[in-house]
Design goal:
about 350 residues, alpha/beta, Rossmann fold, eight-stranded mixed beta sheet, globular
């Protein structure tokens, strides 16, 4: 009992601080992981709604004492919302509340779309966008938060950018939107982009082949060796993710299907054909060691397709900036905090 009280006292002290600092790496171990997990599970509120085509979408909300504004977090491909419990904890610590998030269709706690729960799949990328719209209407907007901010990672960036591009009125929903490694265009190295696009389309003429893992992606999220992973250079947070994956089971999966890749390829024309300028203030954090998304399309979007956008290159970072070493991650959190503050 005394140990539990001491643990919650530590939580309270963190939440009373407004410093944009990550939980120190030396505290991210098995015990600390269970501590954060227990805090989020005890204090978070879970819910669900029916997304496009009647698919069950699970969402999560956690509330703190801060009054800087609410944050909507949209994760990437294959990432259940529980992967980012540490991030929500940091946001609460920084004074933001509540934090809203959800699991995309076909992943996390949300309903699967095909029989194999270890394959990341989607029938149409547009369903992601429609689900996000439903999430906002069902779980976020009815609460009328004074300030509302958006924070995304990777595929979550593609979904939310395309969501704002679809209707200009949506660009006034958020005070500001921050993006970690947004998926504006996939990096298909060593396969040429054009060939990859053609190959995915060709394979998807067969339903059976379309449901197979995208080439080279069967171990995308289930890699067993840290050394060659393309996601983070932080071995401690990488190991934490592996432990959490084992703890919660099938909410994690291996990699995307050919169909998922085909749908992402199809989004390129939506970005390229957009003629307007996004009015929502944008912040783009670009990882200098990113092997999964291309940097130039991010820069072009920021310079030519937005009215107010700042792009910051994060040095010594792989794709998952928000799962990086403290030196990188703390900088990212401070950039995000300052950006949100300036757009309150």
């Amino acid at each position: 009992m005394k140990q539990n009280r001491f643990s919650y006292l530590i939580i309270l002290l963190f939440l009373l601080s407004n410093k944009a600092e990550a939980i120190p790496e030396n505290q991210i171990n098995k015990k600390w992981d269970k501590f954060i997990f227990k805090f989020m599970e005890s204090n978070g509120k879970k819910g669900q709604f029916k997304g496009e085509k009647g698919i069950r979408i699970n969402h999560f909300k956690v509330t703190g004492k801060g009054n800087k504004g609410a944050v909507v977090f949209v994760s990437g491909q294959g990432e259940p919302y529980i992967k980012y419990y540490e991030l929500y904890y940091d946001l609460l610590n920084m004074g933001y509340s509540p934090i809203y998030t959800f699991d995309h269709r076909g992943q996390g706690h949300s309903e699967r779309l095909i029989k194999d729960p270890k394959k990341g799949h989607v029938d149409s990328f547009s369903y992601y966008i429609k689900d996000f719209d439903s999430f906002l209407k069902n779980a976020v907007l009815p609460e009328n938060n004074k300030n509302l901010f958006l924070l995304t990672h990777s595929t979550g960036g593609a979904i939310t950018l395309l969501y704002m591009m679809e209707e200009e009125k949506r660009q006034s929903i958020f005070n500001g939107a921050a993006f970690s490694s947004p998926l504006v265009k996939m990096n298909t190295i060593p396969i040429p982009y054009g060939f990859g696009k053609w190959f995915a389309k060709a394979l998807c003429k067969s339903k059976k082949l379309c449901l197979q893992y995208a080439p080279g992606k069967a171990k995308f999220n289930a890699y067993k060796k840290f050394r060659w992973n393309p996601l983070t250079s932080n071995k401690i947070r990488w190991a934490q993710t592996q432990r959490l994956a084992k703890k919660v089971g099938d909410v994690w999966f291996n990699g995307p299907t050919v169909k998922w890749a085909h749908e992402v390829y199809k989004t390129r024309h939506l970005f390229k054909s957009y003629k307007g300028k996004i009015k929502t203030p944008l912040l783009m954090l670009q990882a200098d060691g990113d092997l999964l998304v291309k940097p130039k399309p991010q820069k072009k979007l920021c310079q030519k397709m937005a009215s107010n956008c700042r792009l910051i290159k994060m040095k010594n970072s792989k794709h998952e900036i928000l799962m990086e070493k403290d030196k990188v991650r703390n900088k990212a959190l401070n950039y995000i905090n300052k950006f949100f503050k300036n757009n309150s």
